[in-house]
Amino acid sequence: MERLNQSAPAAKLTAAQKKELAELDSKYAAKVAEREIALQGEAAKAAGDFEKAESFRNQLVHERKKIQAELEAKKERVRQGK
């Protein structure tokens, strides 16, 4: 751990940055939950059609990854101070 800190010291975040990161986490958790509810509802409606239900599940996985990538990009900009 000490060697890691010597080669790349951890950046110190300001209180404002920490608050903004927490707000981003909260906002994106809500986005994920919203999409999960919508797509799980659609998948439940299509329960008789396995392929359609599976399609909704795959869409949920894809959207979850997309939202997570978007969140990480925004968090990195906050950490960089931009």
Shape: elongated
What ranges have pLDDT less than 50 throughout 5 or more consecutive residues? none
How many helical stretches? Answer: 3
Give the integer mean of the pLDDT values.
87
Main beta-sheet strand count, sense and barrel state? none
Q: What's the number of structural domains?
A: 1
Report the span from N to C terminus: 28 Å
Q: Structural class given helices, strands, pairing?
A: mainly alpha
- Counting DSSP E segments of at least 2 residues, the number of strands comes to 0
Oligomer: single chain
Strand content: under 5%
Proportion in helices? over 70%
User: What gyration radius follows from the Cα positions, in whole Å?
Assistant: 18 Å
Taken in chain order, the helices and strands follow as HHH
Q: What is the fold's blueprint, element by element?
A:
Elements: H1 2-7, H2 15-45, H3 50-80
